[in-house]
């Protein structure tokens, strides 16, 4: 019986051996072809993933500096603690790019893994503009509390993470839900010059955050495990090792948004996944080189998009408003992370003059607004000067970093028109009230319109261009 079985096996082997050989040859050729195509696919995926990750990386930079790194000048004291800024910003302040002096900031980070948190705000006097802009780990503006959305009345607002399924408790005016476990609020309270600082401070001291259990005077739920936050290293985060940072952050964005399931499956092919370890040294050389090349492709594509962007109209918003446009999300983070949704405020950048030449401080310019051309703002508008490439405020002899409709002493023409003088040296005593000082070198000016009216969006209002003085 065994002899018969052996003979049968030998016969089958002789019959199928050629077929198996041909099949193996096909598989080898197919694998070789795949190996040749894989680096290009890997490079393209890495480019896409870097652009996707870019705003999350620089959001994490702020998170780390404000909540983890006690040696950082930006440290706010950890999660669940307000840090208010009431003094006007100056050139020495480097916390964020393109800061403003119209609305001093109030920062607070919340960890929603444990339980929801409650923001309490006081009644805001004198119709003073204020806003709390809430941002998730993706940098989506997912919620707003303030003059435009909730008014100036006192209120209590609950913020819940993706895993909370509780009922709205009594005393809560509204519930906002985040896709991510960590969120940040960037509060802004209107400041009318240095003499108004104490008034702003009194309001800021009444902004409060508390865990839901404390708000309800109940025992807190069991604590969550401590998080080991990776040290922020910008050179590493903008290299192939961006994947390690992204994998860390993705842990706190679970479950993944339904619109990104296929995207994440594609990213898995280069080692991206929530909580997955990543060590570039363990990759084979072709894969490592392809990912590194993809990162450089992503940086180049981002730089190109930045040059083509002149306003913030569609750069900031909810996931639904942004329509998962990851390049816009990256451009927004690069040009001015934490910008407002357009309904709250619009930012319009001046990069060149009416002749399409780059702005430079040694060339005097005039911005002339006919009365009908003044920015249509429900609240107010301003224009702030920033040096390039750092995008910080510009030191100048009159300590004026911005100019706008609330600037004291601003002079209008008899017909309601307005001329602003933008240059490095003073335009003279008779024009100094309308002077926006510039650095000697390259710069950009950003106009902020708080509470933009319909003409901003329907095209009936157009921004005026800088014209050479005397031209």
So how many helices? 10
- Summing up helix and strand content along with how strands pair, one would put the structural category as alpha+beta
Principal-axis shape equals: globular
The description of the largest β-sheet is: 5 strands, antiparallel
What fold name goes in the CATH topology slot of the domain at 344-468?
Answer: Jelly Rolls
What share of residues is helical? 25-40%
Under the CATH scheme, which architecture of the domain at 344-468 would be assigned?
Sandwich
Keywords: Lipoprotein, Signal
Domain DUF1214: 344-453
InterPro entries: DUF1214, DUF1214_C_sf, DUF1254, DUF1254_sf
Pfam families: DUF1214, DUF1254
